[in-house]
């Protein structure tokens, strides 16, 4: 078991640099966001993980298109966390939950 807090700090530092140097919609930024989502997932921060996955997916779809393998890797993760988060936060009705892809 690794040091999750230190890994989080390194990823956040890398993301900050990438955002400054590459811009908000670069595919390297999407990769780091996906990795932050994975880290938060391992740490049990499922809502935060989903937010990172969604941001990564948005960039990937915009820059790479629907058929790209990076999208194929992020999409199931994002959908899984969306369903889990909606189920946990709104156990009585999933149909009234906002769709995270319509932001």
Characteristics:
74% helix, Serine Threonine Protein Phosphatase 5, Tetratricopeptide repeat, mainly alpha, 103 residues
Number of helices: 4
Q: Remind me, CATH topology?
A: Serine Threonine Protein Phosphatase 5, Tetratricopeptide repeat
Q: Using only CA atoms, what is the Rg?
A: 14 Å
The parts where pLDDT drops under 50 for at least 5 residues are: 85-103
Number of domains: 1
Describe this structure in words.
With 103 residues, the protein is mainly alpha-helical. It has one domain: Serine Threonine Protein Phosphatase 5, Tetratricopeptide repeat, CATH 1.25.40. Helices cover 74% and strands 0% of the residues. It contains four helices and no strands. Helix 1 packs antiparallel against helix 2 and helix 3 runs antiparallel to helix 4. The radius of gyration is 14 Å and the shape is flat. The chain starts with a helix and ends in a 14-residue tail after the last helix. The C terminus is likely disordered.
Give a concise summary.
The protein has a single domain, classed as Alpha Horseshoe (Serine Threonine Protein Phosphatase 5, Tetratricopeptide repeat), CATH 1.25.40.
